[in-house]
Design goal:
The complex is a heterodimer of chains A (95) and B (396). Chain A has 95 residues and is mainly α. Chain A is built from 4 helices and 2 strands, in the order αββααα. Chain A has helices spanning 2-24, 48-51, 55-64, 78-91; strands spanning 34-35, 40-41. Chain B starts with a strand and ends with a strand. Classes of the chains: A mainly alpha (95), B mainly beta (396). Chain B: Its cofactor is Mo-molybdopterin.
């Protein structure tokens, strides 16, 4: 039962992360990043299918920004950043 | 044979063994070796793969061993950090036709690189280094590429002195406080350009030394390094050396681009980037060991490395073989190429069997020396602490 609940919460996070990735974050991640699972082919930042960042790295990068990448801490609540981290690390098989 | 193995985020172990197998048998195949499995991106596929760590398609680091201690870094092992994808190499097909716009001067206008060359050409040797070089040695979690020592090189730039061009155009406007360079990358649609454009403002004092560079080490500037033309500001961190330079403006305010306003700002861990914080401009005094060459039978060791002064010429390097307990003066083994260049150094010594912590500490003409530790900062910029850059050397 506990596992099922945890799994459901994770699934919610991943769904939320995908929505943010493909459109709801501003700017959306997919504009600059290629991620097969999300169907995005952005060519500005690293190809996430190649980089395979784990959740901690996604969270740190989205929060702080890198180079020209914005610091989303100023744009998204922490819960959304966590959802993105869960989604990207899951979609690339890093976790 | 020398094997190089990071043993944690702060130190590197260099073992000496009779064979490569001996080194491999240590069983510490580093994460960087795995990273090396990524192929070089097409725009930089002329780099030496064995000397490069491919972090991402836009971040290529020179390995510590591959860097060696040359007076001038060959282009085919020079690191690459692109903030946006490199444009097509087509833009370097006819360098002289490349056009650059000038604003904030007495007579604004656009000139081709071919025309700009008629104002004269100079060469300068200087260190090119990413602000985040040494980030991997910080203990706190940092976003961005985990560069160790290899986001740096010492190269010859040849180009048109910007001061001559600007003087001919009537000089900077009276209110100008910044020299703002804009890169020519194509930006994606659907995004506020200031979010992503590579546009950097440096103090107008940089005009005295800035070049519009079109050659790297005597060869036409490749697209991987900003060709056909790049703004070079000697002594300044890499990000200020804007690639594919399309516009140079003298402005009263800093660029509104994110990369200027909140990016590349030195601030405490946990703090967001903001305009009031120091921008990553002038580099600092720094050195690191790259290549101990060992005679195992005698314990005779040649410690080699490179040392830079930042914006003041490097004047000396001390090497410690006991983790900073005592220091010996090293000798420069390459020419003095000016205040902005690095110099290779060497210390010949005898080491007993065992493990030795080898550190280098450079001093510049202004009297600045590397600190033992550089303070942690949010993005992991500017690390020149000698302790973090030390290596462990094992004589067996």
């Amino acid at each position: 039962m506990l596992l099922a609940v945890a799994g459901s919460a994770a699934a919610d996070d991943i769904a939320r992360g995908k929505a943010l990735f493909t459109g709801e974050a501003s700017p959306p991640c997919g504009l600059c990043h290629t991620l097969a699972d999300a169907g995005t082919e952005g060519a500005i930042g690293p190809v996430l299918d190649d980089l395979k960042p784990d959740a901690a790295r996604v969270a740190a990068t989205v929060t702080q920004g890198v180079g020209v990448m914005p610091a989303y801490a100023e744009i998204l609540p922490a819960s959304d950043i966590a959802a993105l981290a869960a989604y990207v690390s899951s979609a690339t098989g890093a976790q | 044979m020398i094997g190089q193995h990071p043993i944690n985020r702060r130190k590197f172990l260099l073992t000496t063994g009779g064979t490569a197998a001996g080194a491999a048998a240590v069983g510490l195949m580093p994460a960087r070796a795995l990273a090396q499995a990524k192929p070089l991106p097409a725009y930089a596929d002329w780099k030496k793969p064995d000397a490069m760590i491919v972090h991402t398609a836009q971040t290529l680091e020179t390995t510590r061993a591959g860097m060696g201690s040359p007076a001038i870094t060959p282009a085919d092992i020079l690191y690459v950090r692109n903030n946006l994808p490199a444009p097509s190499a087509d833009i370097t097909a006819d360098p002289d036709a490349w056009e650059i716009a000038f604003e904030g001067v007495g007579e604004p206008g656009t000139m081709s690189l071919g025309d700009l060359k008629t104002y004269g050409v100079e060469s300068i040797a200087c260190v090119l280094q990413c602000s985040g070089n040494g980030r991997a040695f910080f203990d706190h979690e940092t976003s961005g590429t985990q560069w160790s020592v290899g986001a740096a090189g010492n190269v010859f730039w040849t180009g048109v002195p910007l001061r001559r061009v600007v003087a001919a155009m009537g000089g900077p406007s009276a209110s100008a406080r910044f020299l703002t360079g804009t890169g020519g990358e194509t930006l994606p649609e659907g995004l506020d350009p200031t979010t992503i454009i590579v546009e950097r403002s440096v103090p107008t004092s940089a005009l005295d030394v800035a070049l519009i560079a079109f050659e790297l080490n005597g060869e036409p500037l490749p697209v991987a390094h900003g060709g056909p033309a790049r703004l070079v500001v000697p002594g300044y961190y890499g990000v200020n050396n804007v690639k594919y330079i399309k516009k140079i403006a003298f402005t009263e305010e800093e660029s509104p681009a994110k990369i200027q306003q909140s990016g590349y700002r030195m601030r405490p861990v946990g703090e967001s980037g903001a305009p009031g914080q120091p921008s990553m401009y002038e580099m600092s005094v720094k050195s690191w060991v790259t290549a101990p060459l060992m005679d195992v039978s005698s314990g005779r060791v040649v410690i080699q490395g490179v040392a830079m002064g930042g914006v003041s010429a490097v004047s000396g390097v001390d090497v410690s073989l006991d983790g900073g307990g005592s220091w010996k003066a090293a000798e420069f083994t390459g020419p003095d190429l000016g205040a902005y260049a690095w110099r290779p150094f060497e210390l010949v010594t005898d080491l007993s069997v065992g493990t030795h912590v080898v550190a280098s500490r450079a001093t510049n003409a202004a009297g600045d020396s590397q600190p033992e530790n550089f303070p942690p900062n949010h993005r992991g910029y500017g690390n020149n602490g000698w302790k973090a850059h030390a290596i462990e050397l094992t004589v067996s």
